[in-house]
Amino acid sequence: MDRLLAMEAFVAVVEAGSFVAASERLGRATSTTSRQVSELEAHLQARLFQRTTRRLTLTEQGQVFYRHCKDLLARLEEAEAEVGAGTGEPNGVLRVTAPVSFGTLHLAGLIPQFHARHPRVHLNLSLDDRQVDLMGEGHDLALRISRSLPEHLVARKLASVSIITCAAPGYLAQAGRPERPEALQAHTCLLYSQAEPYRTWTYQGPQGPIPVRVGGYLTANNGDVLRAAALAGDGIAQLPAFLVRDDLSAGRLVPLLPDYPLPPLGVYAVYPSRRYLPAKVRAFVDFLAETWRDTPTWEQGPAPD
C-alpha cells in the first residue's frame, strides 16, 4: 500500500462526500479509491467512515486522522511548490470562500490580475455569507469580515471597513433624522442577522460605548437585501462602506450620527490552523494585502457629509 496515495484518497473522499466524486477529482477509478481507503483502515486497524446507503460520515477516529492527513498533505504541497522545478511557483487548485456582496464587488475584479501573476493557480471561488467550516468543506482560505475572530483560527488582517448608519432622504423626510443614538429606538431599523447581537447597535460616544436596542420589520443575513430596503425608504441601516459608498456619494443614502462612530470591521484572510501554508495560499493572501495595503477602493474619496 502506498500510504501517501491512500491518504490523498481518504482526504478527497471526506471533502467530496463520496467515493465517486473523490475519484473524479483524483482522476482514479472508483474501485481504486475504495480499495486504497479500505487498505488504510486495515493498516490503522480503525474504521474511518460510517457507511450507509445514503451517506458517508467520519467516525471520531476518522476526524482525528483527517486533520493530520490534511496537515501532512499541505506540508508536502508546500515543499513541492518551493523546490519543484527550482522555481517555487504557486500552482494547483486554490479553493477560496468569501461573503457574497464583498466577493462580487471587490474580489471578483481582482481575479484576472492574480491570474496574470500566477497562471498555474486555478481559483475556485465560493461566495457564501455563512461561516463555513474550512477543513470540513475543503476550502484553503476564507475571507471574513468581522470585528474579531475566534482565537483558534489562523488569520491575517488585510484591510478595514467603515460601517455607516444611513437612510434614504425619503425616509428621513417622513420619519425625521435621529441626532443621537438613543433616538433610533423610535425608528424602523433594518437588521443584519449575522452581527452579534444584531438587535443592539453600539456607538462610540464622548463618555464611552452607547448600546441601543433597535427593532424593525426586516432582518436579513445579506447586506444587499438591507441596502435595497434602505434605498426604498423602508428604514435605517448599518451598512459597510464597500456596499454603500456610491449611494452615499450620489445622495441616494444619507449618513447619520456622524458624531457617534461605529467601530470598523476587519477584512481577514483565514486559513486552517497549520504550521505551513501552501505557496498558492500565501501568494493569494500577499496579493490581496498588497492591493488593499494603503486605502482600499471602498474607503477612497471624500467622506460623505
Automatic annotation (TrEMBL):
Q: Which CDD domains match?
A: PBP2_CrgA_like
Q: Name one Pfam family in it.
A: HTH_1
Q: Which GO terms describe its molecular function?
A: DNA-binding transcription factor activity; sequence-specific DNA binding
Q: Which domain of life is it from?
A: Bacteria
Domain HTH lysR-type, residue spans: 1-59
What Gene3D superfamilies does the entry give? 3.40.190.290, Winged helix-like DNA-binding domain superfamily/Winged helix DNA-binding domain (1.10.10.10)
Q: Which UniProt keywords apply?
A: DNA-binding, Transcription, Transcription regulation
Biological processes per GO annotation:
DNA-templated transcription
Record family assignment: Belongs to the LysR transcriptional regulatory family.
Name used for this protein in its record: Transcriptional regulator, LysR family
The species this protein was found in: Alkalilimnicola ehrlichii (strain ATCC BAA-1101 / DSM 17681 / MLHE-1)
